[in-house]
Amino acid sequence: MIQALQFSGSSTEGLEEWDELPAYCDHTLLTLPLGLRWQRDWLASRFADNAVRWERVKAAYREIANGFQAADLDFLVLKGFSHCPDFVADPRHRVQYDLDVLLPAQRTQEARGIARRLGYEPIAARNRLPVDHLPTLIRKTGWEWRGNYFDPDLPLSLELHFRLWDEQTEKIRIEGLEEFWDRRERRCVDGVRFTGLCRMDALGYASLHLLRHLLRGDLRPAHVYELASFHEGTVDDAAFWEAWRTTHSDSLRRVEAICAGIAQAWFGCRLSEPMQDEMERLPAPVQRWLAEYAFSPLESLFRPNKDELWLHLSLLDSAGAKAAIVRRRLLPVSLPGPIDATHVPAQDVTIAIRLRSYWRYGIFLAGRTVHHAAALPGVVFGGVRWFLLGVDLSREYWRFFLAAGLFDFGLFVYFLLYNLYLLQLGFGERFLGFVSSAMLAGSIAGSIPAGVAIQRFGLRNVLLGGFVTVALLSAIRANVTEGPVLIALAAVAGFAASIWAVAISPCVAQLTTQKNRALGFSLVFSSGIGIGVLGGVIGGRLPTWFGRIGSRPVGAAQYRASLLVGCTIVLLAAWPLRRLHLDRGTGNVRMRFPGPGLVRYLLVAAVWNLGTGAFNPFFSAYFARLRTGVETIGVIFSAAQLAQVTAVLMAPVVLRRLGLIRGISWMQGLTGVALLLLAAAVGPLFGALAYATFMVFQYMSEPGLYTLLMDSVPEEERSSASALNFMIASSAQAVAAAVSGAAIEKTGYGPMLILAACVCIVAGVLFRTLLKSPQTPR
User: Fold this and answer.
1) How would you classify residue 585: left for phi > 0, otherwise alpha for psi between -120 and 50, otherwise beta?
2) DSSP per residue over 493-513, as a string?
3) Which of 47, 131, 227, 476 is deepest in the core (most CB within 10 A)?
4) Are 180 and 247 in contact, with CB atoms under 8 Å apart?
């Protein structure tokens, strides 16, 4: 249908086969524009009816104009026949259902009184969305809707406007509108003399009107077609567009450029050079919306959506204004106006008419409710898509993101089940401790070699080899039962896994820009936490599923099969990674001794990890001391993981407001406060809340810490800096865990948690005093 109305390359192919075409054209008000290009009998009958309607519009206008002029009321005509000839060549080619007139705000009630004396009555009052005019007035002639959009007997409505734009509702300020009244001019259309907007301001108001309906989700395609016609007809009028550029305000030209972009996208109209320049100056989010969602208002006729919401939010600066718009669009509280028997006088409304009116209104209201409900999933998906489009992260970043997700998911499944597998083999907790210690020692030992390998062979190659090696070693560990060999393999696996810990920071740093780096880290870390929740749920059920497949009780064989599933998922992570384009290394580069700035960072990082590492390994034992059941501990852990996701995603916003150093410092201090709350906890509920707070502030600081580390060193030193950071953090956590374990046995959790809290607070103070925001490398 839209293709038939293109200003270049139009085509009516396939229209004959579309049975719903007449209904679609009538509903979108595109019937008459189509009839000017495509001759059909059903179109001709509509032109005939509309010609009769135009004569009645002229008569109605003259009556109203005479009444206003008799009272010395100054007014001007908006829309309707005033759009001729720039938007529509002939008023008979435009269907008009109401008369819109603009008056000084202080005289609208006087005009309303005149209209009432002429027989116009307000439509029955209902709570409706705010508009720019008084309640619509109509003549209640007894006419009722019979399905003919061009019925000559359909009475004309009257709307008395007191403003051109509703800033309070839309939260968008448009400057210079008060000047429209001063530029009004006398005109004549088909023998009808009237005062209207000047040509330039007619474009401005048509754009405002279009944008208002667009943002409220009820844009009619005919509005866009008329605007496209204006642009096509004035594209070569250089004097007009030069005057437009110097007369209309920046805020109004922005609205006009948005609407011009939609008109061009839909109908292929040409745009003047000044308008094209204005479109190029539109904010990046608005340009992105036009590129991605310009056709969404058309699509909403067939598939409910609220994609215009993202445009609206892009035009707002205030967080409060954005919240108000989201609330209004997603949770509408205003009821629609009446839809039936609106032209029937009150004294003629019978019980049957009233019941039919209630019935049709109920059906309409139910339909709107279903529409809003059906649109909600799309709004959620669209919001995520809009957010991802806005962060401007590259395709390469998302490939890395997928690889990281698969790797994390496979390892979460593996590590959840591995200790349980060892228990199935008959090993005890003491042996499990040896395995964990060996793996940690291997990780620490592998951190520096991993950095050297990355510098020599490149991030992608080393990371790809690390993924494959971890998957193979994990599979071997799942099939070996000798204790000494298992401990040795754990150390080797820790050595290989250190590659991921060292490479993740320089990978994210290379695949992001300074502007979106904190967000890039946030997405990777928050998704890793969320995947941990999913990995725990699925991994915990895998042995049972394998038991059902083999009709056997769950034992070592089922755990082994589940571990191999985890290994396979880790191996799958190599698939997106192999297509990743990262640096190939810089040749024979040696690890450099860290500069003073990096030394200060690592010193503070060591203090921070001493504080957090004193409690993290003892989470489950702490809650067991509070007489918390195992299932409840699991729920607390899952809830804390979800809280971490929120915290990490919020981190860029917090860091942007507080600043990098100040934000990290506050988060570390609040982590210490949470540890004090844990020390004071006397029951599971209070302890759970304190633990969630501890996890939120601890992990909220991570994106900032990694951003600070990567921005503080030259690109060629990022791998070595990441390796040093990992080694220092792991060593500090290992020391903290060993010391805290001994301290807890002697004094209990309280004194240890108080000491850990003090260490975290000291780390926050050291961040503010020893570190500065990165300016120059090193």
Assistant:
1) left
2) HHHHHHHHHHHHHHHHHHHS-
3) 227
4) no
Three-state SS annotation for 716-776: HHHHHHHHHHHHHHHHHHHHHHHHHHHHHHHHCHHHHHHHHHHHHHHHHHHHHHHCCCCCC
Q: How confident is the model at residue 128 (pLDDT cuts 50, 70, 90)?
A: low
Which residues, in sequence order, are CB contacts of 679 under 8 Å at separation 6+? 749, 750, 753, 754, 757
At 163, is the secondary structure helix, strand, or coil?
A: coil
Q: Which 3 state secondary structure label does DSSP give 516?
A: coil
| In contact, 187 and 194? CB cutoff 8 Å | yes
Distance spanning both ends of the chain, measured CA to CA: 62
* 135-143 contacts at long range (C-beta below 8 A, 24 or more positions apart): 136/98, 136/337, 137/112, 138/342, 138/343, 139/343, 140/342, 140/343, 140/344, 140/345, 140/346, 141/343, 142/343, 142/344, 142/345, 142/348, 143/343, 143/344
Q: How far apart, in whole angstroms, are the C-alpha atoms of residue 483 and residue 107?
A: 94
Convert the pLDDT of each residue in 260-272 to its tens digit.
Answer: 999 999 999 999 9
> Are 570 and 474 spatial neighbours (Cβ–Cβ below 8 Å)?
yes
* Token output for 252: 């109004």
Question: How many residues in the chain?
Answer: 778
pLDDT tens string 699-753 = 788 777 877 777 777 766 766 777 777 778 877 877 777 677 778 768 888 898 9
Peptide bond preceding 85 in cis form (omega within 30 of 0):
yes
Question: Which residue is it, tokens 């998302």?
Answer: 398
Instruction: Please calculate the CA angle 508-601-511 and round it to the nearest 5 degrees.
Output: 10
- Are the C-beta atoms of residues 233 and 186 closer than 8 Å to each other? no
Which letter does DSSP use for residue 196 in this model? E
Of the candidates 452, 444, 455, the residue with the CA atom closest to the CA atom of residue 497: 444
pTM for the model stands at 0.59
Structure-token pair, residue 698: 């601890």
- Contacts of 197 by beta carbon, 8 Å cutoff, 6+ apart: 76, 78, 82, 180, 183, 184, 185, 204, 205
Q: What pLDDT score does 380 carry? A: 64
CA separation for the pair 607, 763 (Å, rounded): 6
d(Cα 188, Cα 83) in Å, to the nearest integer? 11
C-beta neighbour count of 33 within 10 angstroms: 23
The structure tokens 């080899």 sit at: 465
Segment (H or E) for 187: strand 185-189
The 3-state secondary structure of 197-219 reads CCHHHHHHHHHHHHHHHHHCCCC
Contact 516, 733 (CB under 8 A): no
**DSSP code for 133:** B
User: What gap in Å lies between CA 110 and CA 333, rounded to an integer?
Assistant: 31
Which residue in 321, 336, 320 sits closest to 372, CA to CA? 336
Q: Which two tokens stand for residue 192?
A: 């009808």
Q: Are 134 and 163 in contact (CB under 8 A)?
A: no
The pair of structure tokens assigned to 686 is 């209070």
Gap between the Cα atoms of 248 and 246, Å rounded:
6
Q: Which pLDDT value is given to residue 630?
A: 45
Question: What's the rounded Cα separation, in Å, for the pair 652 and 667?
Answer: 13
